[in-house]
Design brief:
46% of the residues lie in helices and 15% in strands. By secondary structure, the protein is an alpha+beta fold.
Length: 587
Amino acid sequence: MAAPNKGRRPAAGGQSKPGRALAFILIAMVALTGGMFLSHNTTPRLGIDLAGGTSITLKAKPEPGQESAINKANMDTAVSIMERRVNGLGVTESEVQTQGSDNIIVNIPKGTNSEQARQQVGQTAKLYFRPVLTAQPTAAPTPSASPSASTSGKPTGKPTPSGAPTASGKGTPSGSPSASSSTKGRAVSDALKASGSPTPGASKPSSPAPNPSASSGDAAAAAKLQAQFAALDCSTKEARSKAGEGAKSTEPTVACDQNGAEKFILGPAEVDGTDVAKAQAVINQQNGQWIVQMDFTGGGSKKFASITGKLSKQQYPNNRFAIALDNQVVSAPTVSSTLSGSAEISGNFNQQTAQDLANVLSYGALPLTFQEQSVTTVTAALGADQLHAGLIAGAIGLALVIIYLVAYYRGLALIAILSLVVSAILTYTIMALLGPGIGFALNLPAVCGAIVAIGITADSFIVYFERIRDEIREGRTLRPAVERAWPRARRTILVSDFVSFLAAAVLFIVTVGKVQGFAFTLGLTTLLDVVVVFLFTKPVMTLLARRKFFASGHPWSGLDPKRLGAKPPLRRVRRTTSAPVDNPKEA
């Protein structure tokens, strides 16, 4: 009787409970599919080449005497700021790139917030806090959807909006004459005399005569500014945008407010947009209105405290300061005390307008002024044709893979096809959820990445199936062969997928634009290949190895030992010895 094999060990890579892995991946598929339907995102978000959109051409426009400002460094900075503005609105898959030396092309996909992105992308967004030298209501204010805002500072005080008395009762209602013409001339002359310190100065009594200390140059500049102010037209949006065009931040200028109700002569800028550390749209807890809250940098807070301290000692209207965005006054509140730390822009904001302004301020001003040259609507017809052709190519490739699997692996092809279906479900649901989640948009290169992934996934099945066949050729039955083949196949699959994922990661990092879509999809499907092989293909193979059709080596199972040229099973032969014979002749 043969002695029992005490040293026998269980088959390597044994998996006693494959049902657990199958239950896990089934739950994951149900959860992802349910999340897709509950979030109402049943299709992946499409890129501009598939969904269409808008292409904008912007041309850099030099300021007078600053033609050299149009250089590569400033153009690259403008591209970076435009990208952050568009992405800050949640518009993904946008493309911002330079063309030539002075043009920028912006491609914005059709979809949520695309119109807002178009409005903001070329906005210069130069923000300045300027003291008000003169203010005068216009004869016929023009209604506008833009907010007419007031500003408050924190934490040391709160300015009073235009039209309301200040804390000391010195405010003058909006619409009242702001100052006599002689006072206006004196304020302008004083500002022109200020050498790099644009403050209104201490209150001085008004005098009908020109300032005797003003030089002839200052007087001429003041007269010129007064003439510009008198001729200033704030009746149309185009006229308001051109008011004070070309003025430097260190010089006084004229400006209109955003709705054309008031026009101003403003002193040189005391605080600018670079002194704003952060801007965000929030709801005022006291009145429930939307406001834009700005936090200053350390240096900006000191500048803000300095100017508001000086303005608080002035008479109306010289105790006002204007928040000018692209030389249009967003608000011009009066100041009654020193302010520091932060400021609020408040008024007739709704959520969208408040967030738009905060978004523009958060990412800084463009280093150049841009003029919109052309706006072109991009249709999805060309992309749809290319997508149709790509899908046909993918379907043909998939059909060829299935034909090969059926012809060569026969019954094992069923496992491969089921695994491909599971991989496709996981890929589709994740892409649909990543659209609103991280802004992923499916473009043509991404579709190509998904098609390439079919080959990567099929390669993993082939590696495992060939390892099983090798074990059967060595004379083992199917169940031990399945478990013994898994460790070697697993190592090969992991190494192969790691190389593919590493290539996708490097491609994603070093490239920009649509190529990143290809790299992202390739990396995602490579990770899903590992998940599917470990949690679906291997457990299903373990279960089917217990079925008679596969275990008996049916000719259509793809595991027929005869077709594979299997060796006969190794058996231990016991030798028997006879008793020795004394007489050889008798033997």
